Amino acid sequence: MEQENASVLIPQKTSPITSFYTKPRKPFKEIIIERILLLLTILSSILIFFVMFFVISKAVPVLKASGFNFVFSGGWDDIFSKAWQAGADQPVWRFGALPLIAGTVLATSGALVFCFTFGLGCAVFIEEICPAWLRKPLKSTVRLLAAIPSVIYGLVGLMTVVPFISKYLISNELSLRMIKICILDGTSLLAGIIVLSMMIGPIFIAMAGDAIKSAPKRYKEASLALGLSHWRTIVKIILPAARNGIVAGAILAAGRAIGEAIALSMVTGSVANLPNPAHGLVFFLEPVRTLASTIVDNAEGMSVAACESALFACGSVLLLTCVLLSLFSRIVSGNLRQGGASNN
Amino acid sequence: MFREICGRGALRIIRTIKGENAIGHAACWLSGLLTLFLLLFIVIFLVLKGIHAINWDFITSDPRPSLNQNLTGGILTPIIGTFLLVVLGTLFALPWALATAIYLAEYTEGNLWVGPIRMGIDILSGVPTIVFAIFGLAIFTNPHLSFFSTMVEEVTNAKAFGRSFMVSSITMSMMVLPFIIKSIEEAIRAVPSAYKEAAYGLGISKWRTIRKIVLPSAISGIITGVVLGIGRIAGDTAIVWLCLGGSMTLTGTQPWWHPQNWLATLQNTGSTLTTYIFYSSPAGEGNSPDKAFGAGLILIVIILALNSLVDHWGRYRTLREE
User: What average pLDDT does this structure show over A287-292?
Assistant: First the structure.
């Protein structure tokens, strides 16, 4: 008995001492604080799952009833007003959001084309070409433009771009000819593209500028030392080296463009119209509506369950697209960090 | 004037850099100057259109519904609404963002699961504000959360209204969270590790080091993050339009400035400068564009002032580091 007691006692005596030297124990308060911080951190990281869960679960009735027709069939406005007027006993669950998705894709891709051409030029200008005295004001300009609220872009676009289009691009005969299809009053896909490219341009310029700046200096020096001109160095060396960052910037800008609601709801006409490419250039003058601005425009329909679910379905399409774009942008800029510059 | 300057720039380029690609250079000059002129155009346009609307009466009177533009009143309650949202949104977002940023910057050495956490926050920053807005509605129309807004009377299935200052400021704080986290984390990481090592060497615990050494050294970066968040909250429209509703005046128990009515005001709806602009523009229902320009001018002045504040803090920080 005594021996057993002793063998139990000895480790008990020594264990606090050894553990003190091998691994100092943190004070209780430190542990508590660390746990609280960890909890809040995990909370902010799983917030995205909460958002996805609630938005998609509200959208399920419409998505289930419509299936793939939600993406491939049209007639949003008619169905929406039908669902709005339908009684509680026979709700309308089948919606078709093709015009909205087409509007979103058209406006976003148009704006991306615009802002890629001008934005890349501007980023190269800021980082490589412009005289030193102009660089600082230009950089502040880009930052301020990125900070201007979207409703102000919408207001300025509505009061300048839209009247310009209706005055100079739409003639009376044209609007008479088109009156059966849609009303041409200047609020159009073109106005949306212009306003949207003004909005996402600064974001793209800032990202592309960072990418160009972080291209290795020695590439540029080596190229210049080999006798290439500055312009050729930019086109052949710096831009390829910064390619991944530029693409990541474009993806980020696309995500912003897809989710833009207010400004587009102000300038694109708020009609769920599917522009017809057969009309030639009039295509760009026809009103459209994007997924995001639909939620703003039809917000009063939220009191009817079917309409609410349809708007949440639009929201979940938006959300999933933006999550995919974020992941994609992460992958692309991850390649950048691994030295994507040297792969050709 | 625009064409003249562009033409002069292009000519100068062609003259000075013979043999290089003049067209490319000209295109770059053009797009650079285009960006500069875009900002000037927006600001000058707003000033020209909005300056007439702004007077003392415009700032100190409530909006009134009227078809006559001269009778539509002022923007007192939208300004108060913006102020309320900014203060409440920052109050909710700052402690949360600070905790997350401290954890990510100081406690994550050698942790493998920090990658997924970062990814979640990263993706959150790409979620459109309109999605946050309907998320806020989905959460706060739950009858159990009716404390944050009011209950809807006379409906068969119980439902909270889901639109109030509290709802929209909580939604706003989720929206700005990733941006504030990123900014604060960068600031904390920029604190020289010698400071921390000195504190540890003196036997100060980790949390005390963070509280007394790291956070005070990173204060300018934290302020930058908060100001950026304020700019985002003040400039957002989608969340306000859906989670605060379209009523222009404060709908809580009147008069709203009495302390016993403050809670009711927060539980009820109102407007901010952004929704006022949206509502008064020809796109909304108010149809008083001059007032919209006045409010737009005030909003853009606030945003530009906040941004120059950030610039100032940033410069101060870099100067001190040198």
Answer: 86
